[in-house]
Amino acid sequence: MALTTHPTPISRQVQMRILAVAPFLMSAFLIGLAPSIAFAQSAASPNQTATPTSSASLNLDRLFEDPALNGPVPRAAKFSPDAKLVTWLRPNDQDFLRLDLWAAPVEGGKAFQLIDSKALVPDEGELSDVEKARRERQRMAGSRGLISYDWDQKGQAILAPLGGDIYYVSLDTPQIPRRLTQTPQFETDAQISPQGGYVSFIRDASLIVMNLANGQEKAVSPHGHEAITYGMAEFIAQEEMDRDTGYWWAPNDLKIVFAKVDETKVAIVQRLEIGASSTQIVDQRYPRAGAANAQVTLFIYDFKTDQSVPIDLGTDKDIYVARVDWSKDGGTLYVQRQNRSQTRLDLLMVNPSTGQSKVILTESDPNWISLTHDFTPLMSGDFLWTSERTGWRHIERRSRDGSRVEVLTAGKWPVNQISGVDEASGRVFFMSNKDDSLEQRLYSAPLHKLGKVTEITSAGGAWSVSMAKNAKAFLGTYSDPATPPRLGLFDTNGRLIRWIEENKLSPSHPWWPYLASRAGMRFGTLIGPSGDPLNWSMHLPAQFDASKKWPVIVYVYGGPGVQVVQRNWGSNTDQMQAARGYIVFRIDNRGTPNRGSSFERAISRKLGGPEIEDQLAGLAFLKTQPFIDQDRIGVWGWSYGGYMTLRLATEAPDAYNAYASGAPVTDWALYDTHYTERYMGTPQGDAEAYARSSVLPNLKNVKRPLLILHGMADDNVTFDHSTAAFDRLQAAAIPFEAMVYPGQKHGIREKARAKHVQLTIMNFFDRTLGPGPR
C-alpha cells in the first residue's frame, strides 16, 4: 500500500525479530492464559555463541546512533550476471543512512567494499524535486549514498547513480569510475540495456539513451514538461502500483517501450510545504478518489528505424497500465491493463513492430484484482502467471498466446511471489507461508504439471530470496526472533554454500550489550468475531513478572498489504518500548495479506469496520490476562495505522486509555484514486461507504488522551487530513495534543527528527499510562 508502515528508518525494518530471555519467563507467561490460545516459541539463536555479560537496557538514543543497531543488514543483494560475485548495499558504520556497495566472490574469499559512495561523490548536493519525490515513493527518503545500482549483462561493470549524475564503474578499475553525465539537471531511473550497449535515464521528463561506445546521447522520446512526461512512472504507479519506472528495454537492445503520462486533467491540489524558515505553496497534481487520473499511453521506439509506434491499449482511456514485460526472445510484448474500478485485469499480447494488441487473458473479481510481479517469460515462449481464481493465489503455466493452461500449484495456501525458474531441471521456485502463516519460505514445484511442492529453506523464521538468473543458486536473507538478518549463498536444495553477511550475534555486534535485557517474543492465535483465526504477537519485558500488572502499548497498522505479526527479528521500536517497561502487542486483522482472498477482501467497501472489530477482539483478549493493567493500555500507529488509531478513538472511545495517531487518513475522499477506489469504490458511486469510513464526523466522541503527529510537507497523506481533524476537535472543545514537523514528508526518517517522533510518542505514553509494573 501507499501508506508508510513505520515512521523511522529503524522501525521500517518490519521483517526482523529476536528472542533472548531467561527460560523461566515462558512458564511465568503461560500462567492464567485462556486454553484456546496457541503459543509458538522460536528455537534458540543458531548464531549466538556466547552469553553476553552486559545487561544494558536499550534506550531511545541508541536506536538512532551509529553503527546501525541491527548490524550490517544487506539491501538489494544481487548476483553478477556471470554469477562470479554477489553484491549488496550496506549501511555505512559511520552513518547508517548512507549506503555503499559491497561485493563477495561466490566461490569464496573475503567480502570487500566495491564502491565507497562518499569517496566517489563527497558532496551529493541538493536532490531535485523529482528525485525527492521518487525516493519518497520508494520509502528511501533520508537515505544517502548509493540507493540503487545496475549490473551490465556481461558482469564487467556497474551503473551507479550518485549526486544527480551517473557513473560507470568497471570491475577492472573500480577506483577510476567513468562519469557518464555531468549536467545541471538531475538524471533519474538509470538503467543499462540488456546487452550492455546503452545506458538510459530520465532527464527533464524525457527518455535519453547514451551509446556507451562513443558516449553520444539521443532523446528517444519527445521533450517532456511539467504536465506531460515521457519514460516516467506517474505518482499513482509509484505510490500504489509498485511500478517505479516508465520504460522497458527489449532483451536484444533493438527496441524500447516508454510511457507518455499526460496529467493535464489531474486536479492541482495546492499544498503548503511549511518549513522551518519558509513556506511555499506547491501545486501538486494529486488524483483524489473519484477525480481524473493521468492518461497513460505506451510507445515502442525502434533503434533501426528511429521511429516510435503507439501501442493499442483499447478504447477505454480511463485505465491503469500496471505492468510491461517482454518475451525472452523479444518477439512479443505483454502489457497488463487494469480497469478504473480494478475489478478486471487484462493481459495484452502486443506486436512490437506494429503496436497492435489483443487480450489473451482476463482476471476478474467483484471486489478487486491485486497486482503482482509474477509474470515470468520462459525460453520456450510460454509464461508463468498467478491467479486468485480459487480464493488462493497459485501458479499457472500458459502458452505464448495464453490459450493453454497448466495449473502448477494448488491448495488452501497462497503463493506469495514467483522467485525464479530453472527450465533445465523443470522447477519453479516461489515464496509462500504454506506451512505457517507467520513465516515466509522458499518452495519449488514442477514446471510442467501439478505435482509435489518441496520445501527449500528451513522453517522457524522469515526468508527473502534473490535467485541467480539461471536459478541454480539463490541469495537468502533469513531472520527469526533470535537471529538478526543475515545473508547467505545457497544451492537450490537449501544448502548453505557460504555466508555473504553472517551478521553474527557476537561481542562485536551492536546488539550484543543489550541481549541480556532483551524482550522475549510470543505468538498466539485467537478466534475473531467473524470466526477467522487472528494472529497476534507480544513482546514481554526481560524483567517480566506475571504476578504484577503491566501497561501495554498496542502497535496497529491494520491496512491491506501489510502483515505486522511475523516470526522474524522484529522492530527495535518495540524492543525499546519493552525495555522501558511496556508489553507491546500486535494483531493482524481481516484485510491484511497472506491469508487468502476472503480474509483480505472482508474490508471491501468497509474500511474502518472489520479491522476495528478484530482489533477490539485483540483488546478483549488482552484484558483477560491477569498480568495486564486494564487501566493502562495505549494504542499507536502511523499512516493507515494512524487512521486505525483515530477510528478506535472515535468508535471505541473508552476502550483504550491513550491514543497516538501519526499521519492519519481522516477522510478517504481526500486520498488517492488507485488505493482508495480499490477498496471503497468512488465517492460518487459509494457515498455511503465513504461517509461511514470517515473519522471526521465522529471526532466529537473522543474522550481519552489523544496525540496527533504529521509532517507539514507530506505529499502522500497530505497535511490537510490532520488539520481537518484539528478543526473538528477544536469545534467540539475537545482537548488533544499535536506535534507537527516542518518540511517533513510522510516518512520522517532523518535521524534527529525520527528520534523526536519516538520521543514524543514515548513521553505521551509515559504521562498517560506510566511505564513499568504495579
UniProtKB/TrEMBL annotation:
Residues 1-40 form the signal peptide. It holds the Pfam family Peptidase_S9. Residues 164-485 form the Dipeptidylpeptidase IV N-terminal domain. SUPFAM superfamilies: alpha/beta-Hydrolases (SSF53474), DPP6 N-terminal domain-like (SSF82171). InterPro entries: AB_hydrolase_fold (IPR029058), Peptidase_S9_cat (IPR001375), Peptidase_S9B_N (IPR002469), Serine_Prot_S9B/DPPIV (IPR050278). Residues 575-770 form the Peptidase S9 prolyl oligopeptidase catalytic domain. Keywords: Signal. This is Peptidase S9. It comes from Candidatus Phycosocius spiralis. The lineage of its organism: Bacteria, Pseudomonadati, Pseudomonadota, Alphaproteobacteria, Caulobacterales.
